Amino acid sequence: MNDQPGLSQGGMSPEGTTNPVGILKPKLAPQDRKVLCSAICYCSGTPNISQDGRNLKQGCVAQRLGELDEILQGRSPYRAEVSYDMTKRPPQPILDSQTGTSPHGWIPGWINKYWNEDPEHPPFKAGTGMIRRPDVVIVKDSTKPPTQDNIKQVVEMKFPPDPPNTRQAQGYAKIAGNKNKVVEMTSTECDCSQENQQSNVPVEQLGWAAAIAGGVMFILTRGRSPRPMIPAY
Known about the structure:
The chain has about 230 residues and is of the alpha+beta class. Helix content is about 25%, strand content about 15%. The chain has a four-stranded mixed sheet. Helix 1 (about 30-45) crosses helix 2.
């Protein structure tokens, strides 16, 4: 019996043998999926736009999740675009020195200031995978940094026509410490119909998990929905 959470498993045939499955695919918990789909659905229709006119959908998701973390007073379990130093074992998150938990805002500056001062670092070479930045890291304890022992799942978001990236997935497995904690989430998996992005139940009646979803709705509606009350731990 496979007790790994979040994995799809084979069923039983009428003869009692296990039906074969392909690769067991890690999945998100329903609440995590709801929160991330809310951001994906918004950004699929209203992406950030670069100076040269490109749609920056993943950048839009990162911005939405960053705003969510602000609403939740730094207690969101969804950490967008945390960079990791892949030369460390395990890979170490590169964090803002003031908060100790949020991503560093300017990685080129961090490299110039800290990389060469660390005698354990090899010479930095861009594009070689020395630093990797997953789209989203979901942490177990939102008051602690996204180190490997606090990682619930690493999520790579794909907007068509982005293809799968095997090397990237392998790097994320090193960050998470287990390939079964790496989830590839495509935008086509989300039901973006408006009725499925709304909730008629007051956030304060549903507790902490629902407050997160309420925070997303506040962000996505640009303040037109009630600002959620944040329950204490």
